[in-house]
């Protein structure tokens, strides 16, 4: 079975916005996950913030609005939500830096991440039906949120590092899926994304 754009997010009407949203998610997630994994210094968060606003946040929100116009409920919900997550993250860190809030309680931050993990868990069900690469994106993102949340709650560097590596894997599969959709839009079936589960032939 050839892997085309239709195999990833459903019926195509005009240009497919999904690669933009996936790239915005992937490359913002890569950078923050490198920090969480301890691969680059925590001071790199100052670079994450503008990227989170412009690419992880704004680009995904725009993608979500386009997915809504295309009638894609999954794409609309996913891109709008994760675009909002990056806006939430950037504002949270910015408010703390500007002393708009007195502190960021680690337990509250941890539970916020776990709540995003719960959202990701049920969105994973939809991702399973889309493609294998999107399935793996949401699987590792779910693991990243829960592990990072636990790391924040228990002040565990090891869990935070593990969550960073899960985030890197989620970003890797998101970037691959973005790449595949772009290339397959020009020459269908060139880059495989793997079959989704429970899909009708």
UniProtKB/TrEMBL annotation:
Compartments (UniProt record): Membrane
Molecular function GO labels: acetate transmembrane transporter activity
A GO CC annotation given for this chain: plasma membrane
Keywords associated with the record: Membrane, Transmembrane, Transmembrane helix
Highest rank taxon of the organism: Archaea
InterPro entries, A to Z: AceTr, Gpr1/Fun34/SatP-like
Membrane topology according to the record: Multi-pass membrane protein
Keyword Membrane in record: yes
Main location: membrane
Keyword Transmembrane helix tagged: yes
Transmembrane spans: 20-39, 45-62, 74-96, 102-124, 136-157, 163-183
Family, as annotated: Belongs to the acetate uptake transporter (AceTr) (TC 2.A.96) family.
Protein name as annotated: Conserved hypothetical membrane protein
Organism: Thermoplasma acidophilum (strain ATCC 25905 / DSM 1728 / JCM 9062 / NBRC 15155 / AMRC-C165)
Organismal lineage: Archaea, Methanobacteriati, Thermoplasmatota, Thermoplasmata, Thermoplasmatales
